[in-house]
Amino acid sequence: MDYKKLINDHLDRQTDKTPVAVALLAGLAIGAALGILFAPGSGSETRNLISDKTKDLTDSAKDKLHSYKEKLKNSADHLADAAKDKYQTYGQKIQHHADGLADLKDRTVETVKSKFSDAKEELSDKAHEIKKDIENA
């Protein structure tokens, strides 16, 4: 049986490679720990070595966490600035269109007032004409 082919076929079917990565990292950690434990050194040297490596890994993890926090903060700031710019741009466009609508409303009101005034004058003139026609008849 071709185990290599079976393993590759199984891995190709999986889209999530996380379990493989975790298994690889766990194997590396176990191998390193066993290597240190069986190293030809005294117990205190081995404990100091394990302690130093643990501190190094902790410091490295803290540095990476800090780095990721900074990247995340910078990305959030960038997104906030972009959103603020879009908000201001759209706000300006809306204000511009609102001003245009207000001007259109004012012109429409003035036109209606003018037409109403003209109609009132014309009606008044017609009323005077009818009144004169009635008086003359």
TrEMBL record:
Annotated keywords: Membrane, Transmembrane, Transmembrane helix
Top-rank taxon, per record: Bacteria
Region: Disordered, residue numbers: 117-137
TM regions (residue ranges): 20-39
UniProt KW Membrane keyword: yes
UniProt keyword Oxidoreductase, yes or no: no
Stated name of the protein: Gas vesicle protein
